[in-house]
Amino acid sequence: MSPAEVYRCRIDGTTYYLKMIDKLFSNTTYSVRREAEVMQWLSDRLHVPALLEYGQAEEKEYLIMGEIKGRHIDDFAGTPLLYLTYLVKALRQLWSVDISRCGFSSRLDIRLQELNYLLEHHLADVNMTNWQDTTDFAGPEELYSWLCNNRPPEELAFSHGDIGANFFIVEEEPYFYDLARCGVADKWLDIAFCVRDIRDYYPDTEYERIFFEMLGIEPDYRKIEYYILLDEMF
Fold first, then answer.
1. Which end of the chain is flanked by fewer CB atoms within 10 Å, N or C?
2. Does the annotation count 178 as an active-site position?
């Protein structure tokens, strides 16, 4: 769903990935330069792809990365308890990263400034047919105004920022990719995206409750719904 271009390349029997995006997105969390720098910072903290090269060529940012060989998290959706176990494990690994030394922020002030930039430059997803059925706003401007006026307090942790479908399982361990939105943020951002996926896979079931039991925390539905709404125009 991002505006980036991604190419799978085979060179001498080895697979690499080239990711590119227009420099219009350089100051947003779509930036692949930002993603490359996050990847570099995380290389000894979490399992992430190998960063081979990044830079700018003409009007585009680019990065070249190695391949992750494993099973995608969505492959486990047919085994709900295992799927939930891996979601919880991924969240706990993200939260284990020490944010005192993290120079990347994805906090609400950053994300709302970014969304304003995307709206002003006609780069946001304002197609309301792509929104959740429960998103009841007259249009993008009304939703943006609501997001600005209803910001929840933030419980800071290291956040993936788009965790839903963006990790693989390799020998029982999460390997993360699509890292451009990583940084210090409210931990409920990642929880909200997990809840959204659980609802999509298992509607009208108790798996959402089981997920929170596994996490050992009570759900904060105000924050969950806020962060799902925040993602509507990205």
1. N
2. no
Q: How far are the Cα atoms of 50, 90, 177, 221 from residue 192, in angstroms, in the given order?
A: 28, 14, 18, 9
Please tell me which residue in 44, 136, 162, 204 is annotated as part of the active site: 162
Q: Which helix (H) or strand (E) holds 109?
A: helix 108-120
Threshold 0.70, pTM exceeds:
yes
